[in-house]
Amino acid sequence: MLETKISVKSYDVFPNSTLKPSALQHYMQQLAREDCDEMACTYQMMRDVNMVFVLTKLGINIKKPVYAYDELTVRTYNNKVSGVSFEREFEFYRDGEEIIHATTQWVVVKYDNRQIVRPRDFPFPIGEANIDCDTIELPRLVKCENKELLGERTVRLSDLDENDHLNNCVYSDIALDFLPFDRKEDFVSGVRIIFRHEAVINDKLLVFVGKTEKGFAVFADNSTKESACFEAEYILGKIDC
Q1: What pLDDT digit, counting tens, does each position of 203-220 carry?
Q2: What local confidence, expressed as pLDDT, does residue 237 receive?
Q3: Residue 194: how many CA atoms within 13 Å on its side-chain side?
């Protein structure tokens, strides 16, 4: 388990000073790596044996808006291994109150061909915390009706990470660019993302949007690869004035 403090920066927020999901995901990605580092499972060590972690599902609940310069205490831990998935939890506290919880599922793949590596064949010690927490149920799929094609997005160099594919944090930026997000009054209170197939440089994504019971569904189809890229649900709340 890793526990640390972070300070939300001015470049992490929307015009109304509320935290962007992509910025939160950047912190989560780095904290997960640092926790693995402490377990003698660094990124370079994994690459040396042709393995990397990739994110397959993500759920975030934000109970109250988080603003620029807020000081947060964060805990993250690999809570359990289920099938081929490593289930990692994140807890974000402000003044002793947990205001954000995130649940993530990761798999290990071969870097060269992206084949899944079963946990029993993973050569590094990743412990299971088995903590009773506010874990988020992650759906098998996002349900909505009457989705509409709203535009296209091409994957560019600036979208890529060390795994040479569209970084998981950028998915939220892509989704929110197509949603009716009021940059003065809204904050993102919930996120669910299912990462279907990776996208790489120059891939073209067709972005569809529809409504769900609680918010908005976003689907991205990779027209270059003729495959689904991701599907997501975003729930918006209003800032209390």
Answers
A1: 999 999 999 989 999 999
A2: 94
A3: 15
CA gap 110, 108 in Å, rounded: 7
Residue 86: other Cβ atoms inside 10 A: 23
Q: Name the DSSP class of 165.
A: S
Whether this model's pTM surpasses 0.90? yes
Q: Which residues contact 110 (CB under 8 A, 6 or more apart)?
A: 50, 51, 117
Question: What CA–CA distance (Å, rounded) separates 83 from 236?
Answer: 32
- For 105-133, give the DSSP string: EEEEEETTT--EE-GGG--S---------
Contact 79, 89 (CB under 8 A): yes
Q: How far apart are the first and last CA of the chain?
A: 37
Distance CA 140, CA 227 (A): 17
CA 101 to chain centre: 12
> 240 vs 65, 93, 215, 216, CA distance in Å?
9, 20, 19, 21
